[in-house]
From TrEMBL:
GO terms of molecular function: 4 iron, 4 sulfur cluster binding; ATP binding; ATP-dependent FeS chaperone activity; DNA binding; metal ion binding; nuclease activity
Subunit structure: Heterotetramer of 2 NUBP1 and 2 NUBP2 chains. Interacts with KIFC1. Interacts with NUBP1.
Residues bound to [4Fe-4S] cluster: C630, C633
Entry's localization field: Cytoplasm, Cytoskeleton, Cilium axoneme; Cytoplasm, Cytoskeleton, Microtubule organizing center, Centrosome, Centriole; Nucleus
Protein's name according to its UniProt entry: Nucleotide binding protein 2 (MinD homolog, E. coli)
PANTHER family, A to Z: CYTOSOLIC FE-S CLUSTER ASSEMBLY FACTOR NUBP2 (PTHR23264:SF19), NUCLEOTIDE-BINDING PROTEIN NBP35 YEAST -RELATED (PTHR23264)
Region (Disordered): 1-142
One GO term describing the cellular component: nucleus
GO BP term, example: DNA repair
Purpose: Component of the cytosolic iron-sulfur (Fe/S) protein assembly (CIA) machinery. Required for maturation of extramitochondrial Fe-S proteins. The NUBP1-NUBP2 heterotetramer forms a Fe-S scaffold complex, mediating the de novo assembly of an Fe-S cluster and its transfer to target apoproteins. Negatively regulates cilium formation and structure.
Residue ranges of domain ERCC4 in the record: 153-401
Phylogenetic lineage: Eukaryota, Metazoa, Chordata, Craniata, Vertebrata
Key words of the record: 4Fe-4S, ATP-binding, Cytoplasm, DNA damage, DNA recombination, DNA repair, Iron, Iron-sulfur, Metal-binding, Nucleotide-binding, Nucleus
UniProt source species: Oncorhynchus tshawytscha
Main location: cytoplasm
Length: 703
């Protein structure tokens, strides 16, 4: 029995040829393909006939052959439709598109190569920068004084070793482990220095320093003085006395940068202030020399030949001088590296070696004082006395004919030297008005300037500055407060002035006034900060510049007292405010704030030393937090120790202005920004502060 399988979809195709037996009904072969099978299956079916079985077999055979030879007559199942979106037909690219794709690939490749090169260059630059930094650090390290000291060699002329005292010099150099060598020098009896250069620098040998020390005995020096004197007044004739001046002049002509210092050994200090020993007097008389001749030679050597003369007593003094010069030479390379000209405001007359002269003539008095010191070999105190009496050399020359013959010899020599130096140039006549000289500026109308100092922080310095200012204002005085505590400006908070804007006028900054009567003015860095919590992270030069601007550029107007609140300790701020104030105004003195504890009084001792070194008058010592005032019974209890400030004043010979207790009412007034003097006029703390203020007024008005 034949089985016919039905496909899911199928077609019937008729054969073009017809069978030979057209009259016999038959069903043509059906060929189909099942989608579920991998192999094609063909099935045939015949309808039953009345013929024999043999005829059926022949008919089946014919059907199979027909299915093989006539494919068009078979039924073929179509391909099933694919699920999803049909993929579009592949489009063939043109040459232009292929070339564009190739160019894009090349560009991406070049970009990757370029990025790779850039990264490699940046890496190399970072490596080179690190190497440069490392080399710079090594160079800077090699320039430090302790390393430079190892590269210096002290060269001593053999002629100096003939003196028995030279063993002191050699022994000292050996003890400190400094290198020294015995070498014949161009200038006999001299000491020079050589410096070994780093290996990377091309050099033929060690570098010779410019500093030269010429060690002479008193006899040799007097011979050189005679030689110089005869050269100056002998119309070019050769000196009859053999001396070192000729050799010294030849060396200076060959090397103009040479800095020569003549050490005259064997002379005591009294020899150059007017008192001479008998042997020295006989030697001077034999040479025909006078004091004026020697001073003339010294001035000539210093001004015209750049030769400094130093008088020493023994070889020990010579050794100390050699050690000092050696240390200075070891510090020179690092000093030249660190000192730049980027901060011109630091180059001031009091800091630099010279004197700064302004366009208005400020500084000429200091020049005149130094000239007196150099011409007459006098002390700075004597020179200061002369400049006070005669503010300029022109005034001294104008009044010299009217001076009596009994004037001191120093003044006679000074007039004689000035007449010689100014004989070629006529001196202008100066007319002096009988009035007090005032330097002017924004401090011209300020009567008194007082500094508030403390050795420690937290002793109540700003609190007492504020309360003293309020007490002076209630006494009818116009008071100003300059807050130079740049890192901790607290006075604006204590006076409850908020953060007003600082305006400018023609004279500079206008201070902030705390009242309508403008009796209390204030200037602080707290007004210039955008954020009150902002920290002032500045170095010394920047602080110094701002303090100088505060002193010179604040238009204070008329003030009876200007109180300057300073930070604790002795730092750049103190030096800056003191130097800038002294340029424009007289500083009346300073008040020192302390607490009773020994730790605080010990720091105030150092503050007293600072005042003495800077010439600042100590107006008095105030002891703050001296006991605790009970808010209920007003009894004072000594929480800390007692009497530390008063005892310190007795030991140091200072004035004890008084003590201020630790009062809760004062603390509350400061926290709330109220005027304690006006709010609690009957309190014991008010009496103490008012007494200190009155003592201060008396002290500055009657110095």
């Amino acid at each position: 029995m034949s089985v016919l399988k039905r496909a899911k979809t199928w077609e019937i195709s008729e054969s073009e040829g017809e069978s030979d037996a057209e009259t016999q009904p038959s069903i043509k072969c059906i060929a189909f393909t099942d989608q579920g099978d991998d192999n094609n299956e063909t099935a045939t079916a015949n309808s039953p006939t009345d013929g024999l079985e043999q005829d059926n077999k022949d008919h089946n055979t014919d059907c199979k052959s027909t299915a093989k030879t006539e494919p068009s007559d078979t039924l073929v199942a179509p391909r099933p439709a694919r699920s999803g979106t049909a993929s579009p037909g592949r489009k063939r690219r043109t040459k232009v598109e292929i070339e564009a794709d190739r160019q894009r690939v090349e560009e991406r490749k070049e970009a990757r190569e370029k990025l790779k090169r850039v990264r490699a260059e940046e890496k190399e630059e970072r490596r080179e920068d690190q190497q440069r930094r490392k080399e710079a650090a090594e160079r800077q390290k090699s320039l430090r004084p302790d390393n430079c000291l190892k590269c210096l060699t002290v060269c001593i002329d053999p002629a100096l070793l003939q003196d028995d005292g030279s063993d002191v010099l050699l022994g000292t150099l050996s003890a400190v482990e400094w290198r020294s060598s015995i070498e014949t020098q161009q200038l006999p009896h001299s000491i020079t220095w050589t410096r070994d250069l780093p290996p990377e620098k091309d050099s033929s040998g060690p570098l010779e320093e410019e500093q030269v020390l010429l060690v002479l005995g008193l006899t040799d020096f007097m011979g050189m003085v005679v030689s110089v004197k005869q050269t100056l007044h002998g119309n070019g004739e050769e000196s009859a006395v053999e001396s070192f001046f000729k050799l010294l002049s030849e060396c200076l002509n060959r090397d103009a940068k040479m800095a020569v210092t003549v050490l005259v050994m064997g002379s005591n200090a009294n020899s150059w202030t007017g008192t001479w020993d008998v042997p020295e007097l006989s030697q001077r008389s034999q040479l025909g020399m006078e004091d004026l001749d020697i001073e003339e030679v010294l001035v000539f050597l210093q001004l015209y030949r750049n030769i400094t003369v130093v008088f020493l007593d023994s070889w020990q003094d010579v050794t100390d001088h050699v050690c000092a010069v050696t240390k200075a030479l070891s510090k020179r390379p690092y000093k030249l590296l660190t000192e730049r000209c980027e901060l011109p405001f630091c180059v001031d007359g009091s800091w630099a070696s010279g004197v700064r002269v302004e366009r208005d003539g400020a500084g000429l008095g200091e020049v005149w004082s130094r000239q007196i010191t150099q011409l007459n070999r006098v002390s700075p105190a004597v020179a200061s006395t002369l400049t006070t009496a005669y503010p300029s050399p022109q005034i001294l020359l104008q009044e010299s004919p009217q001076l009596s013959s009994s004037i001191p010899s120093i003044l006679q020599k000074l007039c004689w030297n000035l007449s010689r130096l100014t004989s070629a140039v006529p001196m202008p006549t100066i007319y002096i008005e009988d009035k007090t000289y005032n330097k002017g500026g924004n401090l011209a109308q300020v009567q008194h300037v007082v500094l508030i100092l403390s050795g420690k922080g937290g002793v109540g310095k700003s609190t007492l500055t504020t309360e003293l200012a309020l007490a002076l204002r209630h006494a009818g005085k116009k008071v100003g407060i300059l807050d130079v505590d740049l890192c901790g400006p607290s006075i604006p908070r204590m006076l409850s002035v908020g953060k007003p804007e600082v305006h400018q006028c023609d004279s500079g900054w206008v201070p902030v006034y705390t009242d309508a009567q403008k009796s209390l003015a204030l200037m602080s860095i707290g007004f210039l900060l955008e954020d009150p919590d902002e920290a002032v992270v500045w170095r010394g030069p920047k602080k110094t510049a701002l303090i100088g601007q505060f002193v010179s550029d604040v238009a204070w107007g008329e003030l009876d007292v200007l109180l300057v609140d300073t930070p604790p300790g002795t730092s750049d701020e103190h030096l800056a405010v003191l130097e800038n104030l002294k340029k424009q105004h007289k500083v009346d003195g300073a008040i020192l704030i302390t607490t009773p504890q020994a730790v605080s009084t010990g720091d105030v001792r150092r503050e007293i030393t600072f005042c003495k070194k800077t010439g600042l008058r100590i107006l008095g010592i105030v002891e703050n937090m001296s006991g605790f005032v009970c808010p209920h019974c007003s009894e004072c209890s000594n929480i800390f120790s007692k009497g530390g400030g008063e005892e310190l004043a007795k030991l140091t010979g200072s004035v004890y202005l008084g003590s201020v207790p630790l009062d809760p009412l004062l603390t509350t007034s400061i926290e709330e920004g109220k005027d304690f003097i006006q709010t609690f006029p009957d309190s014991a703390t008010f009496s103490a502060i008012n007494s200190i203020a009155q003592t201060l007024l008396t002290s500055i008005q009657n110095p």
